[in-house]
């Protein structure tokens, strides 16, 4: 097992009367107009009912085929909230996304589990405030906020889908191959924009390529190590550029780099990879 580390009723017969000679047909002149009137009234009601039913059915069918407008969703997965909380970052990011019309879900600390990452889907925007690292084979893993324990995910650990990971402070967590992000739901990432805030996000062609191949519109990440506080600042600028200024992902990355700049310690920059 490898380790990685990182930062009714009946009717009366009309016109028939009993007589001494039995039954005979009478000419009841006053009843024929009434019969005709009843018939005409019935016919009008029938035609009207058919018309109403036909139009109601047509309206119902039209309604069924009308496109349903759903509120787009965004998610912030902050696995670092327990060890490196930044409540202001979460508030600002959420406010900007709300203002842009998104419904926002937030998962913090130990709630950012391996199962969450594997089952996640249906979001137009995924902001992953998670550590990330590349293993010896060039695979990109993203850290959960779930503390490592030998008793869990044993088959995944043997297969390499999940690994034991350690941050710079020596804390151990489970990490998952990024290609398994949302993998349990078909098309879970299709059309989405993913922002990975951890280190070396664009350093694995295999990892990023696998994500883009699943229909992701844009993948944004750092090309090396990055300080968390710098990543927080840059990501906020990025989201503002994307959804307040309505720039493309590539333009938003360029603008955020212009405003915030590369990481002052590691000189790394934010990069954007888009689908062809």
In percent, how much strand structure appears in the residues?
Answer: 15-25%
The name of the CATH topology of the largest domain is Rossmann fold
Proper CATH architecture of the largest domain: 3-Layer(aba) Sandwich
Class derived from helix and strand content:
alpha/beta
Number of helices: 7
What would you call the shape?
globular
User: In total, how many beta strands?
Assistant: 13
Q: Which strand order do you get reading across the main beta sheet?
A: 5-4-6-11-12-13
| Rg from Cα | 34 Å
Query: Termini separation (Å)?
Result: 36 Å
Descriptive terms for the model:
5-stranded mixed β-sheet; 6-stranded mixed β-sheet; alpha/beta; 276 residues; 13 strands; Rossmann fold
How would you characterize the overall build of this protein?
This protein is α/β, with parallel strands linked by helices and 276 residues long. It has two domains: 16-64; 73-274, Rossmann fold (3-Layer(aba) Sandwich), CATH 3.40.50. It is built from seven helices and 13 strands. It has helices at 31-64, 87-99, 114-119, 154-159, 205-212, 228-243, 249-259; strands at residues 3-5, 16-19, 22-25, 73-78, 103-108, 125-129, 132-134, 140-147, 162-166, 172-177, 193-196, 218-222, 270-274. The strands form three sheets. Strands 5-4-6-11-12-13 form a six-stranded mixed beta sheet, with helices on both faces. A hairpin with a 5-residue loop joins strand 9 (162-166) and strand 10. The two termini are 36 Å apart.
Outline of the structure:
This protein has 276 residues and is of the alpha/beta class. It has helices spanning 31-64, 87-99, 114-119, 154-159, 205-212, 228-243, 249-259; strands at residues 3-5, 16-19, 22-25, 73-78, 103-108, 125-129, 132-134, 140-147, 162-166, 172-177, 193-196, 218-222, 270-274.
